[in-house]
Amino acid sequence: MRAPDDGERETATGTTGGGYDVAAVAALADRVTAAVEAVVIGQRASIRMAVVALLCEGHILLDDVPGVGKTTLARTLARAIGGVFRRIQFTPDLLPSDVSGIAFFDQKLGDFRFRPGPVFANVVLADEINRATPRTQSALLEAMQERTVTVEGEMLDLPRPFLLIATQNPIEQEGTFPLPEAQLDRFLLRVTLGYPSHADEDAMLTRFRHGAEGSAGTVRPEVDPVIAPGELPAAIVATREVRVAPDTLHYVSGLARATRSHPAVELGASPRASLALLHAAQAVAAMAGRDVVLPDDVQAVAGPVLAHRLVLSPGSRLRDLTADRVLADVVREVPVPVEEDAPRRPVGVTSGRSG
Fold this sequence. Notes:
The chain is α/β, with parallel strands linked by helices and 355 residues long. It folds into two domains: 22-231, Rossmann fold (3-Layer(aba) Sandwich); 242-333, Helicase, Ruva Protein, domain 3 (Orthogonal Bundle). The protein contains 14 helices and eleven strands. It has helices spanning 22-37, 44-56, 70-80, 96-100, 134-137, 141-146, 181-184, 198-207, 231-240, 246-261, 271-287, 295-306, 314-318, 323-333, and strands spanning 60-63, 85-89, 101-106, 111-116, 123-127, 148-151, 154-157, 163-168, 189-191, 265-267, 311-312. The strands form four sheets. It has a five-stranded parallel β-sheet. Strands 3-4 form a two-stranded antiparallel ribbon. A two-stranded antiparallel sheet has the order 6-7. Mean pLDDT is 85; it is low at 2-17, 213-217 and 341-355.
């Protein structure tokens, strides 16, 4: 079986250049945020979380009602980074091969060829992921964790960067298949957009009152790439080099361990969740132009990183407890380390910390 050649597999990657520091990461994050905000109005905190996922090479679960801009956010983010965007509409009759691709016999070549599926892209939107069967959902497990797809026993690399954004409607549950814990644990962040404020909704109506491309009510993101090829891989490397003091590391693991012993929790955060929390905190620090992680950075992403990984006990659910409330209790109870190092912030770098 022949793998896709360079013309068949589009990527937005490039060679990683040297000399990329947290000041450059902060500037890159600000450019991407501004580009996406030109289309997705009033969602700055959610956009910043999406940039965190990019810098961590993680994935996002968008858990929200229809019509709040989930697809627009994913499409615009892909355009802002100059990446290839693919959308998969998940339905009960979707097959794993519809996601990963198929091998077929090419009579001209006299051999099997591989036709890449939509997962071979830089930003993949898995729309209404919980409407597909568990068999089809599982087709994403290898792609999310190893960044590879195995077809007919052959392992194929996905393009880098690779970001999966999955959406699901938390209200409508009829005809859906809940995501298993193993798959939920592979999402770096769970993000909810929510409804815009009155002023933001007025701004959206004003900006897009004529529609786009002659179709009223259809708003297509029209932004140009704001980063050069190779910048994002360099920013990812620089983000991983942000310093973390031993006390802060202990704080990260302490939060994860506290969820496992909480009386309202049946299944707490995994060691993978601890790593996710650490990497997300590094991204928040780098986006703020700092070369050291503070406890505030950890707390800023504790909810989006950990809440969706917790499984509450049946009694807790009967008492209407939520994972967010339990996690808020955990954050209050775990002692916060005293900062040993003052944050070192490059001069002239604007903060872009997500809320």
